[in-house]
Design goal:
The chain is an alpha+beta fold. It has a single domain, classed as Double Stranded RNA Binding Domain (2-Layer Sandwich), CATH 3.30.160. It is built from two helices and eight strands, in the order βββαβββαββ. Strands 3-2-4 form a three-stranded antiparallel beta sheet. A hairpin with a 4-residue loop joins strand 5 and strand 6. The relative contact order is 0.19. The structure holds zinc ion (4 copies). One zinc ion binds next to helix 2.
């Protein structure tokens, strides 16, 4: 299963742009961000496991999502502890860095990335 590029909807996505909340392939990443001074400071996260950043909280486990409100990469454990311990944390929008679906709060609106079979 691959994550599809939101821009061209043809290639497999390689990065997630946190500002646009979009998954982009290498070509669209370049097109959207190179030469566009407004977009060059968009924070982008690689989607591949090899390049996936570590969790910002525990620094041990590979991150599996990015919280748009907290601007941090979290592993599953830290996602649960971060967002359960805060009364308003559960409404945070989170971008998945993996193709695993969020099953923790099925009733909440979580930003998900389109999956390609
Ligand atoms: Zn693309
Ligand atoms: Zn962007
Ligand atoms: Zn962690
Ligand atoms: Zn959060």
């Amino acid at each position: 299963m691959k994550i599809q590029c939101d821009a061209c909807e043809a290639a497999a996505a390689e990065v997630v742009c946190c500002t646009e909340e979009a998954a982009l392939c290498g070509g669209c990443d370049l097109r959207n961000h190179a030469g566009n001074t407004m977009a060059t400071n968009h924070q982008r996260l690689p989607l591949s496991t090899a390049l996936r950043p570590r969790c910002d909280t525990c620094q041990e486990t590979l991150g599996w999502l990015f919280c748009l409100e907290d601007r941090v990469v979290l592993c599953r454990q830290c996602d649960i502890s971060t967002h359960k311990s805060r009364p308003f944390g559960s409404g945070h929008h989170r971008l998945l860095l993996t193709n695993v679906k969020v099953g923790l709060h099925p009733k909440q609106s979580t930003t998900t990335i389109k999956l390609v079979n």
